[in-house]
């Protein structure tokens, strides 16, 4: 089975895809929309895309594309622990403290901002398309005093020296990844629980409409683990609301809540009903 993922190889999304589909044929794509389109056009059976990080919050590209431009269901969620490593070329291993420039993906840079400020306050910080791209660039330019922030796999792939480990700003840093393409996908991991994600829009000229929508879940004692607003991209001040629902109640209660919201004039788009699969450790 072909599994698309946000590449390149050795990225965190690659690690999530490899963990969830150890026997799958993994196919990298350069962007999140490309991963989603690959499923739509039948180039791959499923794709793995990031949806949220502990430190940086939601990956808006994933949310917005799936809401506005796609009807592909979410079938599973992988939760991956994220550990960032500082790596240099082996030629610079003994003088790594003299690094003049640090390269990485913007999220990895943000996740390691305290470390960078403390140890390299004068270094130039440069964003790259991915953490793996940063590692590859460092490997190809050993004459430069540069470092990359990337996962351990990238150091192995490009034969770099890890000089400081686990430099992310907080210990408990995770990223959620969605597996999209089919409903309720089973993975060869231990499932923690189940969740439903949906988006709602309410009539903009009706006072208290969002409160009414949320009350449909509240009085049924349905737990919402997340509520987030995103622009509808129609006019200023209009939003849709992304909800994560903990499926610890009978599904009929959730279905009835959705029907109540629709009767109130709201629109509901269901992203998927899916299992959550935490990954304890990665190498």
TrEMBL record:
Listed pathway(s): Amino-acid biosynthesis; L-phenylalanine biosynthesis; phenylpyruvate from prephenate: step 1/1
Superkingdom assignment: Bacteria
Catalysed reactions listed for this entry: prephenate + H(+) = 3-phenylpyruvate + CO2 + H2O
GO biological process: L-phenylalanine biosynthetic process
Every Prephenate dehydratase domain range: 2-182
Keyword Lyase included in the entry's annotation: yes
Molecular-function GO term, any one: prephenate dehydratase activity
SUPFAM superfamilies in UniProt: ACT-like (SSF55021), Periplasmic binding protein-like II (SSF53850)
UniProtKB keywords: Amino-acid biosynthesis, Aromatic amino acid biosynthesis, Lyase, Phenylalanine biosynthesis
Domain ACT residues, every copy: 198-275
Gene Ontology terms: cellular component: cytoplasm
CDD domains cross-referenced by the UniProt entry: ACT_CM-PDT (cd04905), PBP2_Sa-PDT_like (cd13633)
EC code(s) of this entry: 4.2.1.51
Residues the record marks as site: Essential for prephenate dehydratase activity: 175
Cross-referenced NCBIfam families: PRK11898.1
Protein's name according to its UniProt entry: Prephenate dehydratase
Organism (species): Enterococcus phoeniculicola ATCC BAA-412
